[in-house]
Design a protein that fits this description.
281 residues; alpha+beta; Deoxyribonuclease I, Chain A; seven-stranded mixed sheet; 5 helices; 13 strands; globular; Endo/exonu/phosph_ase_sf; nuclease
């Protein structure tokens, strides 16, 4: 199975145009079973290039046959009596078991711009068993917030794994209490807004607890000894002086034997980030 992670910059390509049909064409070309997208907008015409439509609905229409899970980190008034949203979207053509939406920590850091961030967790009914896929987008401007968000993700890995191996009681029969698999295998993917080799990148892979599988950058499994392919600043140098890997797929180490490939499409100019495709055997 394949898991795609891509910061689509609300469909805005390097040419400055917002074109979700172009975005969807790139996604279709990856033939992924699970698609994890960051920077998806709803009712945000003020974004560069314009993003006034419901991009969740539009992407679902362009990519039929997928179940959709959206979570907004940024949920703000639009000034016209409605709301505007900015967040992450998971599209899956495999069955979804459970879905969780996690607001990430946002400690005050008044010296820099920042926004509320979110992680979306979907438990996928994968061919080899329940798989937790978490996609997120960490803060770019604040190292303080980014560090707190990394710790949250590590805690999430511990909590979810413990739920997976020791499910709660099913004595309560009301439907909201339904006990479904949480999954002992996990993928944490997205735009981590830090380069490979950074303290945040290393902390994501540090040991968590003796009873919890640690997270490992799938690139190091698929390409041992090879520097990660760049995913940010490849076609647009507005933020970085040189291209670097900012987008990752971390897998739980009990899933590592199934990592069959990790590929980066460095050619497409359909966003300021490049798509990352994880293949699991």
């Amino acid at each position: 199975m394949r898991v795609l992670s891509w910061n689509i910059q609300w469909g805005r390509g390097i040419d400055g145009r917002v074109d979700l049909a172009r975005t969807a064409a790139v996604i279709r070309g990856c033939d992924a079973d699970v698609v994890c997208l960051q920077e998806v907008a709803v009712n945000h015409p003020g974004l560069p290039g314009g993003a006034g439509e419901d991009q969740v609905a539009r992407l679902c229409a362009l990519l039929p046959g997928h179940a959709a899970v959206f979570a907004a980190g940024s949920d703000l008034p639009d000034g016209k009596g409605g709301r505007r949203f900015f967040g992450e979207l998971i599209l899956s053509r495999l069955p979804l078991l459970q879905v969780f939406r996690h607001l990430l920590p946002w400690p005050a850091d008044p010296a820099v711009p920042s926004m509320q961030r979110v992680a979306v967790e979907a438990v996928i009914d994968a061919p080899f068993g329940p798989l937790r896929v978490v996609t997120t987008h960490l803060e770019y401007y604040s190292a303080l917030q980014r560090a707190a968000q990394v710790e949250f993700l590590r805690d999430l890995q511990a909590t979810a794994h413990r739920h997976a191996v020791a499910p709660r009681s099913n004595a309560e029969t009301d439907p909201p209490f339904a006990v479904l698999p949480r999954g002992e295998f996990s993928v944490f993917c997205g735009d981590f807004n830090c380069p490979a080799g950074s303290s945040e990148h290393a902390r994501m892979q540090a040991a968590i607890a003796p009873d919890v599988p640690r997270l490992v950058d799938a690139w190091s499994i698929a390409h041992p000894g090879v520097s990660p392919a760049p995913t940010f600043g490849v076609h647009d140098r507005g933020f970085l002086a040189a291209p670097a890997a900012y987008d990752f797929c971390f897998v739980s180490d009990n899933l590592a034997p199934r990592v069959a490939g990790l590929d980066v499409d460095v050619l497409t100019p359909a966003s300021d980030h490049q798509p990352v495709l994880l293949t699991l055997a």
